[in-house]
Amino acid sequence: MAPVLVKNTSDKNTATESTISLDSDGIPPLGVPAEEKRFWFQRAKDFDAEAIATQPSVFDDPQTAEKYQPRDDWENLHRFDPKARWTWAEEYAIVRKIDFRIMIWACIMFMALELDRANLSQALTDSFLTDLHLTTDDYNLGNTVFKLAFLIAELPSQLVSKWMGPDRWIPSQMVLWSIVAGSQFWLSGRTSFLVTRALLAILQGGFIPDVILYLSYFYKHHELSIRLGFFWTMMSVADIICGLLAAGFLQMRGVLGYAGWRWLFLLEAVITLVVGLFSFVLMPAGPCQTASWFRGKDGWFTTREETIIVNRVIREDPSKSDMHNRQPITPKLLWKCLKDFDLWPLYIIGLIFQIPATPEQQYLTLSLRQMNFDTLTSNLLSIPYTALHIITMLALTYAAEIFKELTLISVIGQFWILPFLIYLNVADTAHANRWVIWTVTTLLLAYPNAHPIQVGWNSRNSNTVRARTVSAACYNMFVQAGGIIASNIYRADDAPLYRRGNKQLLAILVMNIVLYCLTKVYYVLRNRYKDRKWNSMTSDEKLHYLSTTTDEGNKRLDFRFEH
Fold first, then answer.
1. Which of 161, 200, 242, 522 could staple 169 via S-S, CB 3.0–4.6 A?
2. Whole-number Å distance between alpha carbons of 531 and 537
């Protein structure tokens, strides 16, 4: 959330002109402080695209501007200009250009991650467990090892990324994990299975928060939230592609005497390797560093476009200039971020919000095989829920930004899952029609996942680059820890109906609903506390606070938590 202004520059209820001027000292006029029309369908026919889009910020008041001045080594300092002005038409055009140049490739990279991360479930339909003499508990252990290693690697990966720069580290990750993914072609048993699971997770860990940090260089907060919705949509698209590829690759069983699942691992790893190599030249370090031999000597953006990108982002969130993009995080800063208690409600939500659906997702293809669907049909039947999931997740993400409500929109996914979990607990699933079970499971897994909302929410409530770097990793670590819990709910001694496991999932879901409500209450009370202290100050006292305070990030009295 943007800092609270010391002075109100205008009254949005009385402004009638298309622009307003803050003073008469030659400072260019600003746009009328108004509700931004974030999406095309919100813009009425009389919307003036040529009106000034630059909104008031702390940089318009000389007294507060110096308190938020970017640091001297910030990589975009040469484009920082508090007097820069631009129109809505220019802003929307540059956002579309960023989408094309930056966001699309980020989505392609994420799809490559998902190919190598999720193809294990497709391998299950091709006698993977039988060929390697593994049990379902061994499969659970493999998932646990993967998520534990992924969790452990999150924070170190973020620290390396902040030191090297995500434009260097992310492609390196992809090349390295593609090699390990391809080596699964030669799996020989339980030990090699667990070792490759661990290595793959160590190299993939941190990729998601690394990409989110990278995207935050280019987008405003609400823009990033929506694009994270599309980002996770690409995971679902990758799952669909993975299912289709598996339907083909698994037919290669017997080629050169090898099982189809071995070809699945190898060929999909080659795809990731190609994407990783191209990422070295398709990821600029930042909006002002796009020139290269591959991207052109003039780069992707003009000087005017770079000025708009830099200033529109920093005017919304001045904290984005408090570190440069190659600056490492010290142990002291790391500890300070880890003990930020105001972010822990989001971490706890990250731990448990996906648990009610995860076991069903992990066991879907195996369950379909147990219901006597063949290999090809089992892979194809795993696609419909993914397609529905894309629609529901994007709808939820848009709803959160349209209604500007994060907590109550996020909890909708839990209410979606509730009736289907109740059915699995009370129905005689042992004798139910297999198509009924498939329908219930498909609808359960199609729930609107709040993950994109919560990742953006975590970023907004961090309020500094270093906190955003660490908190993104911490949030994802808790999500992976939740995956470990979920991977051990369905046990072999509870198979094949998993009645004990389904009761546990139902109890966790009810707890999730309560937790979302408590999180809402917490942030409302924290903001009220800050409001009381901030509003009790005079303008001079507020300026003195900005000049002398040792409060940082979301602990500042001029910051408000989003909820």
1. 161
2. 10
6 vs 10, 41, 67, 318, 507, CA distance in Å? 12, 33, 12, 15, 47
Q: How many CA atoms lie within 13 A of 382 on its CB side?
A: 35
SS3 182: helix
**pLDDT tens digit string along 197-228?**
999 999 988 888 888 888 888 888 778 878 88
Rounded Cα distance, 230 and 223, in Å: 11
In Å, what is the CA distance from 276 to each residue of 108, 215, 354?
A: 10, 17, 29
Per-residue pLDDT reduced to its tens digit, 22-38 = 444 566 776 665 555 55
Q: Which residues contact 178 (CB under 8 A, 6 or more apart)?
A: 112, 116, 269, 270, 272, 273, 276
Per the structure block, which two tokens stand in for 243? 């299912």
Side chain identity at 113, as an amino acid letter? Answer: L
b/e sequence 512-526, b meaning 16+ C-beta within 10 Å: beebbeebbebbeeb
| Cβ atoms of residues 126 and 261 within 8 Å | yes
193, 138 contact by CB (below 8 A) = yes
Quote the tokens at residue 351: 């731990």
CA distances to 114, 144, 490, 562 from 341, rounded to whole Å, are 32, 27, 33, 15
